[in-house]
Amino acid sequence: MRVLKEEHEVAALGAPHNPAPPTSTVIHIRSETSVPDHVIWSLFNTLFMNSSCLGFIAFAYSVKSRDRKMVGDLTGAQACASTAKCLNIWALILGIIMTILLIIIPILILQAYQ
């Protein structure tokens, strides 16, 4: 008899229900994309191969890229990093050419006078 009473209570109450609608939680995980800022390369070009001040300008863009990355502006950081990379390449090329010329020109001058 007890089983019939429990079945009657379940039938009378109906299926258990929750008055609140089901909720879901969405967690957005920001993927940390690595944007190189080329600060070390720019600093090297500024200190050692600063032809036409390109190393210093590249250093300024590198710092600007790092600042934008800290704020969360990855597009701006990538644009500044790309400019810094281009300026670093040109500073390196011009620095190497000037170093070679500073070695070759005195040798040629000494050979001309002998």
From TrEMBL:
Bilayer-crossing residues are 39-61, 89-113
Q: What is the organism field in this record?
A: Saguinus oedipus (Cotton-top tamarin)
Q: What is its main location?
A: membrane
Q: Which InterPro entries match?
A: CD225/Dispanin_fam, IFITM_antiviral_protein
Subcellular location(s): the record lists: Membrane
Q: Which Pfam families match?
A: CD225 (PF04505)
Q: Gene encoding it? A: IFITM3_57
- Give the superkingdom in one word: Eukaryota
What is this protein identified as? Interferon-induced transmembrane protein 3
Which UniProt keywords are present, listed alphabetically?
Membrane, Transmembrane, Transmembrane helix
Membership in a protein family: Belongs to the CD225/Dispanin family.
